[in-house]
Known about the structure:
The protein is of the alpha+beta class and 253 residues long. It folds into 2 domains: 2-62, no CATH class; 65-246, no CATH class. It is 50% helix and 17% strand. It contains 11 helices and 7 strands. A 5-stranded mixed β-sheet has the order 3-2-1-4-5, with helices on both faces. A two-stranded antiparallel sheet has the order 6-7. It is globular and about 95 Å long.
Amino acid sequence: MKNKIRIAFDSIKADKNLAEKTKQNVLKAVSGYKPKAMNALRFGVSCAACLLILAATGSWLFFVPTVCISIDINPSFELSVNRFDKVVSVESYNEDGKALIEALDIKYLSCYDAIDKIVKSEEIAVFLEDNDTLEIGVFGSDNAQTERLLSQINSCTGKCDNTYCYFDEDTKSEVAHKLGLSKGKYRAYEKLTELGIDVDVMQIRDMSMREIRELIAEFDDADNKNDCPENTLPACKESGTGKRHNYGKHNEE
């Protein structure tokens, strides 16, 4: 190392006395470092660099959503959940949804805690007491995480009437969001269009899920009126009031 320092200083064109004094000071400063100490220093620097890289990578992974939870009743909003089951962002899709997520502090909670807080909130309780329908959809790949989250959410809502959970592949999120709809409401909108029901997207945005389901029930084939929504957990029952369905009523005893 000392030879490298001498060569570096010899190549500098400056005042000879200044260059010589500077060179001697640098040589004196490093003269106490033995080969083992220098190796330890290099090792420490390498470890620090690796830790910085890991920290940067972990931070990036934390904010990458892997699953979307669509929550629709009249408030309509979505939770973006990362691979660690943490809520990393919340997006509303109507005014009621915006008001609710502003009232609840759920960002960075675990998905289970966030859903539990939402279901137990006074705002949601008011809708459920009014016999509205709460739908919670897990949108993502068919893998271990979606199964785990669906099971957790079903556990959170197991004692709630007029509530059901479902899974769907996340294939049309871009279309849904361009229309200003949550993925759950877009799924219901698709069902309406399949039945030939002419309904405006703006209407769907502010309709409650009970109103949407009642509309579907009115136009659905009579042979299918006892069918539950696809992938509902657990089995749901018909309400017995005309063509109205009580979708997703959990844990009937």
